[in-house]
């Protein structure tokens, strides 16, 4: 971009984890609005740095880099018999693996170059349900947030599951929402977060919330769409407004109290049978659905060949609908 013949650049942003640092650097070089502090950007890219900078009161998995030549035994002795291996720089769901044996460890290392001592991190395994908070952070404070839960998490989806999630009803989960917002405030403050749209993941353990990780970018999959449908908040608009130096106030002006809660499913090909979009539509009611059943359909992350959005005024009914759709997608019948 620095060598491109562009007359005027008003702002720069990244909607993907891998572009966050590059966007920060471009703001530095072109004197553009938004976060231009590359050190801060690293706090949200390197997951070891991120966890090491959190205050002691924030519960988190133990995390360490995996230098070239590190043995399974060394990591198991340090982190426990079950641990997680993933890219240090995030965006790693497709290269994230739960490791329980030397064989699984060797397999988990194969997607990496093996040429860097800071390319990979290993973390103690947290066996608990995962929730996430999408939000807007500006002027050192939380301006807006929405909490969601996974029916099938990205880690499970990498291993063949159907990735799916839904917005949680704040009135039904008021204590958990308050705890997540408190955790977000602690994490973003300690990491010196810039004005940003953020995505923070956490685990709901018996001891309380355990911090997973946090990114200063738009959430992935269909989270921006279901947030907008539920709350009227367009996180793409917020991200653009922040990148132009306009602030988030205008873009947050259309937020509303939810009348229906929305969730999404990234549909995949089932094993052993063929499904069409008509099959889904005969069995379920969708707000939106696109499904390509052709043999040469491109397959995206998590085995995705289609996607769907569903909604309900009752979160519990929404969760049951998503559960039924996921089962139908997996086995081809209700």
From TrEMBL:
Transmembrane segments: none annotated. The keyword Signal does not apply. Residues 46-244 form the ATP-grasp domain. Keywords: ATP-binding, Ligase, Nucleotide-binding. This is ATP-grasp domain-containing protein. PROSITE patterns: ATP_GRASP. Gene3D superfamilies: 3.40.50.20, ATP-grasp fold, A domain (3.30.1490.20), ATP-grasp fold, B domain (3.30.470.20). It comes from Streptomyces javensis. SUPFAM superfamilies: Glutathione synthetase ATP-binding domain-like.
